Amino acid sequence: MLAAALTLIAAVAGCSPSGEAVGWAPTAGSAGAAEAGTGGASSATGGTGVVAGSAGMPVAAGTGGASSGSAGASGSAGAGGTGATSRPKIRTVGYLPNYRGALSTWATTLDFSLVSYVNVCFGTIADGGDISYMDATLPTFISAAHAAGAKVCMSFGGASTIGDLGPIASQISSANRAAFVQKLTSYATSANLDCIDVDFEGNGVNADYEGFVTALSASLKAQGKQTTAAVASWFGDKITANALGAFDFVNVMAYDLHNPGGSATPVQSSSLADAKAEADYWVNRGLSKDKAVFGVPFYGYSWKPGDTAGTAVIYSDLLKAYGAAVANDEIMQNGMTIFLNGKATIQAKAQLAEQQYGGIMIWDLGQDATGDASLLRAIHDAL
């Protein structure tokens, strides 16, 4: 992230906000509910409330935006259930930020039959290139996922890379790249990961990006593993055709398309039409449709009178506060205006992803509700 604010943004949305639709680049004050984070791949502010998207960080009980909310508690337990009675009908990728609770808990509460890939985020890269993940229960989670037929990726980057790559920059430089790629490959092998997800955003996509991702892809492929990325059109011109071709598939952050975290006027940040245009940007760049994974937000934005920006709020909290009204994409109650993707829109996007693209991506699993209200379950039921 650019700073603590962007780090929070990444938690809420996971992948950073995209925004190509209106030509904006996210700033430290943007809501970022869309992160892997990114909405782009950025992160969200942490907690039970909002999450910002490239993946964002969660905010406390729906009080903060992707960039301004306080760090909250871990999110809800997602769709619930552990049985792997079936596999998803389309590639279904869900980001799971580390602030959403221990992976050992998710290993018993996430219904792995509803996901193809879980992207745990974000891995840590130290100044010397050493790689780690903050949750020591990662092996338990990977074992549970594999037993159910799901794959686990580790995502690196997020909204913190929008300004620059920080310590990662020297590692992907030509001087250190080969050694760093070997470290990533060895880590993926020893941790029993299935892939590495590159979630570099904004200025994080620098002149060394192409050389890094092509080298990483070749190294991982030799070990039977995959390389993926979180992308958004607002920094799309920085990603070369060669870099794009290195990925097994890309997760298109088709949310936060109108920077609602920076708008005093209530606005839908991820309409079906705008999200399709975001995915089609990458197809028009030469990405085959079967590699374009259609990203959807499990969060919305709220405005009360006098607000100068939208505040990101996770779906499960909206459900608790507004009940059946969350079936709509717009809620107006007590002077508050809220835009989100209701169940019908999420299902329409899932059907579009099945018909025209290479699957669906969620930012993020920790924002979902449980039981029949689960949007992850709704995606499965729509196909």
Walk me through the topology.
Layout: H1 4-13, E1 92-97, H2 103-109, E2 117-121, E3 124-125, E4 131-132, H3 138-147, E5 151-157, H4 168-172, H5 177-191, E6 195-199, H6 209-222, E7 226-231, H7 241-245, E8 249-252, H8 272-284, E9 292-297, E10 299-303, E11 311-314, H9 315-322, E12 330-333, E13 336-339, H10 343-356, E14 360-363, H11 375-381
Parallel strand pairs: 1-2, 1-14, 2-5, 5-6, 6-7, 7-8, 8-9, 9-14
Antiparallel strand pairs: 3-4, 10-11, 10-13, 12-13
Helix pairs in contact: 2-3, 5-6, 10-11
The averaged pLDDT comes out at 83
Q: What structural class is derived from the secondary structure elements?
A: alpha/beta
Quick one: overall form?
globular
Helix content estimate:
25-40%
H/E element string? HEHEEEHEHHEHEHEHEEEHEEHEH
Query: Main β-sheet: number of strands, strand sense, barrel status?
Result: 8 strands, parallel, barrel
* Through-space gap between termini: 36 Å
List keywords for this structure.
383 residues, alpha/beta, eight-stranded parallel β-barrel, globular
